[in-house]
Amino acid sequence: MTTPVKAAIEVRALRKEFPVRDKGIFGPRGVKRAVDGLDLDVPRGRITGLLGLNGAGKTTTIKTVATLLRPTSGRVTVDGLDTVTDARAVRRRINLIAGGERMVYTRMTGRENLWYFGQLYDVPKKELRPRIDDLLALVGLTDVADTMVERYSRGMTQRLAIARGLVNRPAYLLLDEPTLGLDAPIARDLRRVVARLAEEGTGVLLTSHYLAEVEELCGHVYVISAGRHLAAGSPAELKAATGTHRTIRLTVTTPSPATAAVATRFGADLELLSTGAELITLRHPDDMAGPLAAAIVEAGGSIGGLEIAEASLEDAILALADGSREAATV
Ligand SMILES: Nc1ncnc2c1ncn2[C@@H]1O[C@H](COP(=O)(O)OP(=O)(O)OP(=O)(O)O)[C@@H](O)[C@H]1O
Cβ neighbours of residue 84 under 8 Å, at least 6 residues apart? Predict the structure, then answer.
């Protein structure tokens, strides 16, 4: 009996080392371990985030999944196909969009680029023609479809690279900083496209420094540091696990020793503003705005303003990164 193949990208005990020379080409040879025993699951129909600080190993992982790098050890499979031994079959199922790299030809028009890449992926010509029109419309390049790419702006070239990444209707889309350098409306459109593709069943692996983007899109997030697993879960689970707090800012227009005593009792910080009012800042995992405001009023204070900032995924990642730095120095 054969075991059923899971429809997912599975990264198992992945390790990737690069040969390096620390002190120039005549220096001693060393090894840089960019990825160190990583396990990831990227199922279809979900956007999976891969987060970590600079140099954590995100791009190396994505390039390995994309068959551009061979694992030093461990294994990556796409719907059960090995990225080393079945690389051709894997490439038909995936596509990579990297924000920094354009990966399109400047001496061709936008339409010619998509035609060329579509043929590389063996998209039947009858399907390719209307698909190219749809993709050009999707990324807002219909008007310049027949203009040489060398005359495109940076943003236009990047939009073409996004269309190129979708030309084979990949089952899995690998997005390495896809909105880097894009204008806000184009970045928003791209996020909508990616969310729709995932709803329709595409598996997406996303790295982004824009954590608000990750929080908006990703159902599950892996956090890595120095090539190793640090944490995983939904953005809400990561925030809860790191005990990341929401912040309450309450302005007291008539501060007094009594209102200051209330602030101290709640463990809040106090700041005297130039207007004479006092700003009370409280970071707490629970919603303390009501009890704090009530206690201030009871102490004779009047409230000039109240702001509540929810904890962000960014706070959680920073807390995790701090934790891993502390652990490394222990
Ligand atoms: N070809 C290479 N040769 C030597 N070292 C490399 C090579 N590629 C990556 N590295 C090193 O491996 C580590 C991981 O790099 P990687 O680009 O995967 O990180 P990243 O998480 O994508 O970082 P960033 O957020 O800066 O893009 C870094 O220390 C990097 O310097």
Answer: 67, 70, 71
pTM of the entire predicted model: 0.80
User: Quick check: 328 pLDDT over 60?
Assistant: no
Reported ipTM: the value is 0.95
Residue nearest to atom 2 of ligand 1 (CA): 18
In CATH, what class is 246-309? alpha beta
Higher pLDDT, 15 or 179: 15
C-alpha of residue 80 to centroid of ligand 1, in Å: 27
Distance 196 CA to ligand 1 centre (A): 31
Write out the DSSP string of 36-93.
EEEEEEEETTSEEEEE-STTSSHHHHHHHHTTSS--SEEEEEETTEETTTTHHHHHHH
Residues within 6 Å of ligand 1 by CB: 18, 20, 32, 34, 52, 54-60
Ligand 1: atom nearest CA of 35 is 14
If you compute the radius of gyration of the chain from its CA atoms, what whole number of angstroms results?
A: 25
42-68+83-240 has which fold? Rossmann fold (3.40.50)
Domain boundaries, the chain: 42-68+83-240, 246-309
Residue nearest to atom 7 of ligand 1 (CA): 18
Cα of 229 from ligand 1 centre, angstroms = 16
Q: How many angstroms from the chain centroid is the CA of residue 59?
A: 11
Query: Ligand 1: which residue has its CA nearest to atom 23?
Result: 55
Tens of pLDDT along 265-319? 998 999 989 888 999 988 876 778 899 999 999 999 999 999 888 778 888 887 7
